Amino acid sequence: MPRSLDEWWARRQWATGLDIPYPIGRFRDAWAPYGRLVAQFRPEKNAELLLSQIPPAADVYVLWVCAIGHEFVATPAEQRARPGATRARGDWCPVCATPSQAPPVPSKFPSPAPVPGVDRRAQALAPRARRPRPDPVAPARRAEPAPEHRGRAFHSAAASTATSATQERLRALIGERLSVELSLNALTIGQPFHGRREVWPDVLIAEFALAIEYDSVGRAGDEHVGRREHSDRRKDALLRAAGWEVIRLRQKPLRALGPHDLVVAGVSASAVDRLIDRIAEVRGALFVDAYRRSAEGAPDADRGG
């Protein structure tokens, strides 16, 4: 018999003797094929647990929220085994699936009233006038593709000025190793992202057309997972579409999202050394070496006789 989430978690604590029977990310791979279910899960409505802490076969009641905002209760097994064409997508919702009992909405363009003396049936059966065919000699006009947007780095007053100590340490460690400009905080993009045509990465290096992000799960364990991970992926895609590359430092237990990401224990001198080496791999060692600082703090290119 399914139990409530609080009761199920308490029984798992008693059975395992652990305060956290299932750590964050334990069942991430098992839930990976069900992206829609991940989007329907809300930690704040489920005892502050993450979906990656709940086994897909757990006999427990979970509260889900569909894309429209309807809340409903179902076990993970029920959600994964919904019948019908929407099973693979996992976007089932009992409210959305129930046919509406409201009367049909009247058409915006109602049928015209009958005109006396006009045979509507004969008029409907009458042949319609054909449209003139285009001139076969004239070349067909093709729509011009939209020009590609090239991202421009700048200082945005709309960007948040509140930065964490971790972000400041990351910026300082990069500045100790590379002679680059680190004061810019925004980049223009071709499509809106959360209502704006600009994004605010943690660190921008215009010399390399490179954005650097630092991701952690946060104190509540809900940062950069679930829907927020989808937002990170879209942000990366917009940056790359604007001609910039992205490198994310992902704190354990997070996993890499992109081909150049690094999984680290935290922001440290060794982690930033790995980051500089990764930048050299992405943008070219000879090019990046020209911006490296010497042990005394001057660029290597200025150390000649």
TrEMBL record:
Residues 37-97 form the Treble clef zinc finger domain. Residues 141-151 have a biased composition (Basic and acidic residues). Residues 100-162 are annotated as: Disordered. Residues 101-115 have a biased composition (Pro residues). It comes from the Bacteria. InterPro entries: DUF4379. This is Putative zinc ribbon protein. It comes from Microcella putealis.
